[in-house]
Amino acid sequence: MILDTVLFLLGLIILYYGAEWLIRGASGIALDYGIRPVVVGLTIVALGTSMPEFLVNFIAALGGEHDLALGNIIGSNISNIALILGASALVLPIAVTPQILQKEYPMMLGAMVVFYGVALDGTISRLDGGLLVTCLIAFIGYLLYDAQNNSAASSMIDEIDVDDDSLETSSPQDTLLKKTLFLVGGTIGLAVGAHFMVDSAVDIANVMGISQITIGLTIVAIGTSLPELAASMVGAIKDEADLSVGNILGSNLLNVLFVVGTVSIMSPLSVEPTTQTVHFPVMLGICVMLLPIAWTRFQITRLEGGVLLATFLSYMTYIVVWTV
After folding, report:
1. What's CA 302's distance to the chain center, in Å?
2. SS3 92
3. Among the ranges given (56-60, 84-88, 170-174), the one the predictor scored with the smallest mean pLDDT
4. Nearest to 179 by CA among 23, 16, 15
5. How far apart, in whole angstroms, are the C-alpha atoms of residue 48 and residue 22?
6. Which residues form a coiled coil (predicted)?
């Protein structure tokens, strides 16, 4: 049990740095070959930030651990809104621009509805995965078009954690060999970290006698959401919390369209009845709950952050009490 916990934490650390190295190497090489920064940002950097969730789900799905894979995505989406935005708002109220609620929020909510819809028959098939990936391609295409033709598109780029800082991943001193080593090392790190996390999470579930969906919804989901939590908390402390909502919406959208879509094409995912009747509705409910909270004065206040955080803790308590 102790060894599994150590391996889980080690896997989480390797996973985080693997994603950082992958983005640094891939974006640096792409920029060297003359690919426009906005294209690099909206593809390599944006998708790279979702690679930890992707690798964890891919390895879990290949091993037949479908509950762990789905629990990770559903739990991450819940944690991103209820835990991360809630905790960040307690530090400092979060400003929300009207454009985010009018454009980005409906896209995120639409992705959640489609996600739930394709899971209602008990299986997220390859065809369902193809639908999600098609939506992802359309989404990125729209962002690229909007970024090229609309100077106000910056908030949409911020939505998926892509800003100028995101592209400052490669220093001028980095040679092509160094960037290639970052790319290869990051890829290997992601694979190794994901293996450690999945294998140790399954072992912890077996030792404690709890279901894989519970592990996925709790420690795995929170673990893969820690980078977003750290970024949002730092943003709140630096009085840059207005970026938090867009980043969270983008993260949730990519979790569904990129991670679930790609993984289910490779290995269809089975969905348990409890996941359909309890966990999916909670995820959708929290996503819907965000709209009236954010619409009020276009700000998430400390009180509203407390409500989000209390909702998250209540859900975690339910999982522990009723499923362990």
Report:
1. 24
2. coil
3. 170-174
4. 23
5. 7
6. none
Local confidence band at 219 (pLDDT 50, 70, 90 cut-offs) = confident
The b/e string for 158-169 (b: 16+ C-beta within 10 A; e otherwise) is bbbbbbeebbeb
Q: Parse the chain into domains and list their residue ranges.
A: 2-323
- Residue pair 223/197 in contact (Cβ under 8 Å)? The answer is yes
CB 182 within 8 A of CB 21: yes
Q: How far are the Cα atoms of 87, 177, 242 from residue 162, in angstroms, in the given order?
A: 22, 25, 14
| Per-residue pLDDT reduced to its tens digit, 141-153 | 887 787 677 654 4
- 121 by DSSP, 3-state: which? coil
Q: Which has more confidence, 298 or 119?
A: 119
| Residue 46 reports pLDDT greater than 90 | no
Alpha helices in 50-97 (DSSP H): 51-62, 66-78, 86-91
Residue 18 vs residues 9, 21, 46, 181, 192: alpha-carbon distances, Å: 14, 5, 15, 12, 9
2-323: what fold? A middle domain of Talin 1 (1.20.1420)
Write the DSSP assignment of 210-246 as a string of letters.
--HHHHIIIIIHHHHHHHHHHHHHHHHHTT-GGGHHH
Sorted by sequence, the CB contacts under 8 Å of residue 274 that are 6+ apart come out as 213
Question: Which tokens sit at 199?
Answer: 């294998």
DSSP category for residue 272: -
Indicate if the pLDDT at residue 240 is higher than 50. yes
Please give the share of the chain, as a percent, with pLDDT higher than 70. 82
DSSP state of 167: H
Strands 269-270 vs 299-300: parallel, antiparallel or unpaired? unpaired
Rounded Cα distance, 148 and 26, in Å: 22
